[in-house]
Amino acid sequence: MLQILTLNTWKCDGEYEKRMEIILFELKKINCTIIALQECFATTDYSYHTAKWLADGLNMDYFFYPSRQKERMMKNINYDSFSGLAILSKLPIVSKYVIYLPSCPEDTERLSIAITVQLKKTYVTVANLHLTHLQNGGQLRNNQFKTLLANSSIQDKNGIKIYCGDFNCEIESDELAEFVSPPFNLKDTYILGGGTKPCFTCPIREDVPDEMRKKIDHILVAPLNNVYPKIRNTKIELNKKNEAHQIYASDHFGVSCTIEV
User: Fold this and answer.
1) CA-CA distance, 87 to 113, in Å (whole number)?
2) For site-directed labelling of 41, which of 35, 128, 213, 228 has its Cα 20 to 30 A away?
3) How far apart are the C-alpha atoms of 257 and 232, rounded to whole Å?
4) What does the CA dihedral 190, 124, 159, 153 come to, rounded to 10 degrees?
5) pLDDT per position as a tens digit, 55-101
């Protein structure tokens, strides 16, 4: 079995250390095999390094790719920093990939990273992505995901392919509609695994009615030889405030599932 979680970790603020402690505490309880992280804060000198700190605390291997470099404010100090992507894995990482995606002047340097692991005799490739946040970026999100799906380096027909991350749109959106139909036939593991509604991952603010909140973070699976792996234990994670600090771990909730391999 393969337990996968996707989580947007962004909280570059005065509560950074507390939030990292909360995320680490929760991730230890969830005990996933693979964790895909978006908006991984890291200073250019790596004195702050979200992915490494969590991987060390969880005793996991990891692949981090720095991107979107600029100055970001934390604790009233401007840090030259990255908002990168990372994948943490309990299994040895067989291969690593970086796939550059289309971008635009208003939202530059979008990319995806992926890893391949082996479980028993099955290869599993997990791609982690963060599509554009632009409100009018539906066509760009479509093009970005299509570019990832067309990338030859991760198209191993003999293995399971998982696509997860912050899509910045709902699974029912127009920009994702073609990918849940032939020839892609992707399925949302949350739905496959019997996940219930209401389900949302953003925003986390309680003053926003549930019907205004959206599930924009997904774990999608492609069929292997026209068969989908069995999915169970689909959950929305890190969706409660930490009792000690009375804050959420991040400004997104996570999504997890178990894939039978």
Assistant:
1) 8
2) 213
3) 6
4) 110
5) 999 999 999 999 999 999 888 889 999 999 999 999 999 999 999 99
CA distances (Å), 247 to each of 22, 45, 129, 201, 214, in order? 9, 28, 26, 15, 20
Q: How far apart are CA 230 and CA 241, in angstroms?
A: 31
* Look-up of token digits 């959206």: 214
The two three-digit tokens of residue 190, written as one number = 């949350």
Helices and strands (DSSP H and E) totals, the chain = 5, 13
Q: Provide the 3-class DSSP secondary structure of residue 235.
A: strand
Q: Identify which of 88, 109, 89 has the alpha carbon closest to the alpha carbon of residue 99.
A: 109
pLDDT digits (tens, 9 = 90+) for 9-27: 977 777 888 889 999 999 9
CB 243 within 8 A of CB 195: no
CA distance 145 to 213: 23
pTM of the full predicted structure? 0.96
Cis peptide before 105 (omega within 30 of 0): no
Q: Within 10 A of 172 (CB to CB), how many other CB atoms are there?
A: 11
Domain annotation for the chain: domains and CATH numbers: 2-259 (3.60.10.10)
